[in-house]
Amino acid sequence: MSLGATRPVPEAGGSGRWALGMLGVTALWGWTYVVVQDAIVLISVQAFLAYRFLGAAAVVGLLQAREMSCMTAREVRGGAVAGGVLFVGYALQTAGLEHTTVSNAAFITGLAVVLTPLLAALVLRTPHRPRQAAGAVLALIGLSLLTLTGLSVNRGDILMLGCALSFTVQNVILACVGPGTHTGLLTFVQLTVVGLSGLLWTVVTGALTAPAAQSVWLALAVTAIPGSALAFFIKTKAFATSSPGRIALIMAMEPVFAGLCGYWLSGDTFTGLNLGGAALIMCAILLAETGERRGLTRDPGPGT
């Protein structure tokens, strides 16, 4: 699969609709941090990922059943690579939630918003913007204030940083392979790869357990159907029809929603330094992606 640059074209019609859809997705994902954190107390991380994404893949597969015979090699290869990177990101994120707060997890994952346009500029050969470099430096300072406890760094925070890097790579892959592909089929391949990878992980570690508690079933239903099947369809379409920087900016709202949910639902607390670090990260996100800019946009896929 080639990750070469795509020629800039006028922004596709309907891209605003998908961008607005991503705003709704970020609100949902912000809430699911709390849902997942509660669920993995009662079921293994490996099993939760397997059930979540295999369920999501089954839903998308049923909706795209008539189109399966038209799947192209580009959709298979692109979806497999994006899905593999996505699995790494979610494995790190879900494991990290066992060792850090919802608010920390969300804000650190939000670093992908700053890192995505930087990586996209490198891979897609778009013009470098000083605002992005300044935003990255500011975000790193904010991250240190948010995560440092004395002279140590929380293990969960380190896992979340790896998650942010994985999501950054996955975002750029979608920006590369999304145009010219069928969104539903590309989404199906991604979700299937994540689900099968999670299932293999459970087999290797002996962690395959059946959901028992009602709260786990609820968490799986919420994260599998709206939180994965619908959300990743919207995300795949959004990155195919708009610039990576624009969609990444919208995704900056995820740590905001998650922080609020962590405060209201999980009893997360903040020190002055924590709040300062979180504020710097949000400022870095805005600095990197606001102001006058020339966005890189792409042709939409051939259908949904």
What does this structure look like?
- There is one protein chain.
- The chain is mostly helical and 304 residues long.
- The chain has one domain (15-289).
- It is built from 12 helices and 2 strands; from the N terminus they run ααααααββαααααα.
- The chain has helices at 15-39, 45-63, 73-96, 102-109, 111-124, 130-147, 155-177, 183-205, 214-241, 244-250, 253-265, 272-289, and strands at residues 148-149, 152-153.
- The chain has a two-stranded antiparallel ribbon with strand order 1-2.
- Helix 2 runs antiparallel to helix 8 (183-205), helix 5 (111-124) packs parallel to helix 7 (155-177) and helix 5 (111-124) packs antiparallel against helix 10.
- The longest helix has 28 residues, at 214-241.
- 54% of the residues are buried.
- Pfam families: EamA (PF00892).
- It is a multi-pass membrane protein.
- Keywords: Cell membrane, Membrane, Transmembrane, Transmembrane helix.
- InterPro entries: Diverse_Substrate_Transporter, EamA_dom, EmrE-like.
